[in-house]
Amino acid sequence: MMTLYTANTPNGQKATIALQELELACEVRLLNLGAGQQHAPEFVAMSPNHKIPLLVDDGQAIFESGAILIHLADKAGRLLPKDGAPRSTVLQWLFLQVASVGPMLGQLWWFRHACTERNEQALDRYGNEVRRLYGVYEQRLASSAYLAGDDYSIADIATWPWLASHTELGLDMTAYPAISAWLARIAQRPATVRGMAIAKGD
To answer: What confidence tens digit (pLDDT) does each residue in 174-200 have?
Structure first.
């Protein structure tokens, strides 16, 4: 039996959605990040960066959400091609989310909602970069049903919770009709609904 330590954040949601989409049995333990449970010594021993999600599979601790999604997809044999160009395409879009989308959207959210003093320079810097990234995804999804092509993959699962946070980021989505349609399609998937409910503790 696998155990997932997670919380109701975009990175935590992608793990619960993936588990539901792949139909893998897993115990889910929700951490209270506000109470600092991610800093408990027993958790840090498994997740040295003090971050969720963390997956424990047969005694192996796997941290970093992208690594977790790859592990789960390979385990189930779905949502990630086994080799060749199709696998590389999925991984490119997965790594774009991990390397750019999460960090940039996370910083914009923090300066909009958590910073005690308004910082116009930071808002401009991160706002411009977030809009640039949304433009990259808009161009891709205008000509592709999903990020890696015709088939739904872990790249979509990884990216959906982040791009779905557009309201909190203050984005005008009329500029991104292809993203909006993609967000709506994925939101209606039963596994997405179940995964989001699990992350929220419902």
So the answer is: 999 999 999 999 999 999 999 999 999
- Answer whether 169's CB lies under 8 Å from 112's CB: yes
Could you tell me if 193 and 15 are in contact, meaning their C-beta atoms sit under 8 angstroms apart?
no
Q: How far apart are CA 62 and CA 20, in angstroms?
A: 18
Q: Walk me through the domains of the chain, giving residue ranges and CATH numbers.
A: 2-78+191-200 (3.40.30.10), 84-189 (1.20.1050.10)
Expressed in angstroms, the distance from the first to the final Cα of the chain is 22
| Model pTM above 0.90 | yes
Distance between CA atoms of 34 and 115, rounded to whole angstroms? 16
Residue 155, both tokens: 């790249």
Query: In the structure encoding, which two tokens stand for residue 73, read together?
Result: 């997809």
> Would you give the DSSP letter of residue 37?
G
Cα separation values, 81 from 4, 73, 88, 114, 173, Å: 23, 9, 9, 39, 31
